[in-house]
Structure formats: C-alpha cells, structure tokens
Design a protein that fits this description.
Arc Repressor Mutant, subunit A; Rossmann fold; seven-stranded mixed β-sheet
C-alpha cells in the first residue's frame, strides 16, 4: 500500500487541537468515521489491510479528494506514516474524541408517530455513541406503550425524566404544528442540543444548537438532479 505525500510521522497535537474546526470539516470527519467503523467497508478501503488505510483510499470511500482529506485530518494532528498510511484504530479514536463521540450521549425522542417509531428502533445510533434513553408523546393512546424497549412517557414528565436519565440531546419527530412547543419545552428543562426532523423551523434562544433534517428538501434536491440528468444538464 502506498501512502500519500502528506502522510508524515506523528507529531504534537497541541497546535492542531487549538484550531477552530470549520463546520464543513466536522461534517466530513463524521463521514470518515462512518467509513472507518463500517466493518464491510474498512477491508475494501484498506486494500485488504483493515488496520492501515492511505489517504487516497479513505478519500475515495468518503467521496472527497485526498488533499481535502489530509487538510481535514490536519485539524486532528498528524496521524499518517509516510509510505504506509494511517493507523485505523488511532484515527478512529481521534475523530471520535474531536466529535465528542468518545463517550455516549443520551437522547430524548419526542413524537412517537411513524417516523418517531422508526427512529426509536434505529440500531445505528448506538454504534455512533448515541442512546435513545427516553420517548415522549402527548397522545394518551401512545403514552404507556412500549416502543423499542422503552415506555413512552408524557411530555409533561420531560424535565424529571431528562434529569434522572442524564439526557443532553433532544430529537423532535413531531408534526410541524407541535415542533415549536416541543423545542420550548426542551430548552426549559436545560436541553440545549436539538435535532429537528419536523417540517419548518423552530426558534430558540442564543446558545441553543438546532440541527434540522428536512427530508422533503433532500428529496427535492434528488428530483432536481434527476430532472437535470434527464435533460442533459448533468452528466453531459
């Protein structure tokens, strides 16, 4: 396996760790972590050597160029060995540390409709350091039911349950009309990191981080690419 020119001996991480990591780089680091921890991918990515991967191999699997990948990894400190590549285990550990995935985060999921039930049963969260620790709804027909091994609580109990379960992240999977009131409830009980699957935007105070997953928007982007490809704008 041939390493890339930018892969050099390990050095001090102090200066790299003090740098502010751009949000786009953080997103790509999450992709690199997914590739490196996928058991089916890592053997192919590493050219048959699951413990070592070159920047070219990892970049190809992640869909970025090698120079961009090395620039992203420079925020972690130098982990490559010239002519060899990157130690997969060490790189995974460092990316997890930077992303905060080196210890588990407990998540409250609010809204147990079809999407909420699917999210509650999604096994991929645990593999990335996130545990769905509590479920909430306001529908009396759902409260008290067991979903994914957890009993659905009423939203009125949000504060008590989040406190007792050491929950730090909220996931909103409600209809759009309920999303703002749920966001308000999360902030009121001290949850300042929110992932919003509900349509539309929610307003939160400064200091509260909201990430929005707009499934309809993503489908619209795919529709645009399909239309453009059919008309010859893309792929010509």
């Amino acid at each position: 396996m041939t390493g890339q020119a930018g892969e050099g001996p390990q050095g001090s991480h102090r200066s790299a760790r003090s740098r502010v990591i751009p949000e786009a780089t953080v997103a790509r680091l999450a992709v690199y972590l997914r590739v490196l921890t996928d058991r089916e991918l890592v053997g192919r990515v590493g050219g048959g050597h699951p413990h070592i991967v070159s920047s070219a191999e990892l970049a190809a699997a992640a869909g970025v160029n090698p120079a961009g990948l090395r620039r992203d990894l420079s925020f972690l400190g130098s982990h490559g060995v010239r002519g060899v590549g990157y130690d997969v285990a060490k790189l995974v550990d460092e990316i997890r540390r930077v992303l905060g995935a080196h210890h588990p985060f407990r998540v409250a999921l609010i809204g147990i409709g079809n999407l909420g039930q699917a999210l509650a049963g999604y096994a991929g969260f645990a593999g990335r350091g996130f545990e769905i620790a509590a479920l909430f709804d306001v529908d009396a027909a759902k409260v008290g039911r067991s979903v994914g091994g957890l009993v659905v609580c009423h939203l009125d109990d949000l504060g008590d349950v989040c406190g007792s379960e050491s929950i730090t992240i909220g996931l909103i999977a409600t209809p759009e009309a309920a999303a703002q009131s749920v966001a308000d409830a999360l902030v009121a009980v001290g949850i300042f990191s929110i992932l919003n699957f509900a349509p539309g935007m929610v307003s939160v105070p400064d200091g509260v981080e909201v990430r929005r997953v707009d499934l309809a928007l993503e489908l619209q982007m795919l529709a645009f690419h399909e239309t453009s490809r059919a008309s010859g704008v893309i792929g010509s």
